[in-house]
Amino acid sequence: MSVTTTAPAKPLITSDVNATAVDQENVSAVLTVPVPAARVFAVLADPTAHSAIDGTGWVQEPADAAPLTAVGQIFRMDMYHPGHPNGGYQVANKVQVLDPPRTIGWLTGQEKDDGRLEFGGWFWRYDLAPLGPSETEVTLTYDWSAVPQSIREYLQFPPFGPEHLSNSLHHLAELASGR
User: Fold this and answer.
1) Taking a C-beta distance cutoff of 8 angstroms, is the pair 77, 63 a contact?
2) Which one, of 138, 104, 127, 128, lies nearest residue 32 by Cα?
3) Are 172 and 40 in contact (CB under 8 A)?
4) Cα-Cα-Cα-Cα dihedral sign, residues 15, 22, 122, 57
5) In contact, 172 and 138? CB cutoff 8 Å
6) Which of 10, 15, 86, 144 is the most buried (most CB within 10 A)?
7) Are 161 and 63 contacting, i.e. CB atoms less than 8 angstroms apart?
8) Is residue 131 within 8 Å of residue 32, measured between CB atoms?
């Protein structure tokens, strides 16, 4: 299955390739922003910016505000979703890829009562391609290909509409440009 939608251009975007594509196991969106890759990466590596980047409103505040600097680093985020049994909850994210200023990505999971971290098999990844000194193509991918059937029985993937990634990229562009 392949679905493609295009959002209207916003003045901040110099070249809006903002297409969202969904296949059986992942969804991605691409947006060209008039900001250097290093600045975009810095925003993504700052967990305190993640609630402002989020296109759903589910991400709240970071429980761990330290910048993301290493593969394997764990950072926790407070979340809210009206469909979650508790409404508010916390996720534990593990940095899987970190190649400044080109790529950053993390697995999302939770901390069990015994302190053990458990990851569900879905991850977020941002790929940044500099298009010159002051322009960057950003690809955001949400991948659930490693989610086991036991989780798929009670969670729908993706848990958001295709506009979520486009919204997130526009929010990221606004933050990175300082607007």
Assistant:
1) yes
2) 138
3) yes
4) positive
5) yes
6) 144
7) no
8) yes
**What's the one-letter identity of residue 111?**
E
Extract long-range pairs of 84-87: CB within 8 Å, 24+ residues apart.
none
Taking the C-alpha atoms of residue 38 and residue 46, their distance in angstroms, rounded to an integer, is 12
Q: 42 — phi, psi (to 5°)?
A: -60, -40
If DSSP states are collapsed to H, E and C, what string results for the chain?
CCEEEECCCCCCCCECCCEEEECCCEEEEEEEECCCHHHHHHHHCCHHHHHHHCCCCCEEEECCCCCCCCCCCEEEEEEECCCCCCCEEEEEEEEEEEECCCEEEEEEEEECCCCCEEEEEEEEEEEEEEEECCEEEEEEEEECCCCCHHHHCCCCCCCCCCHHHHHHHHHHHHHHHCC
Q: Which two tokens stand for residue 40?
A: 């975009």
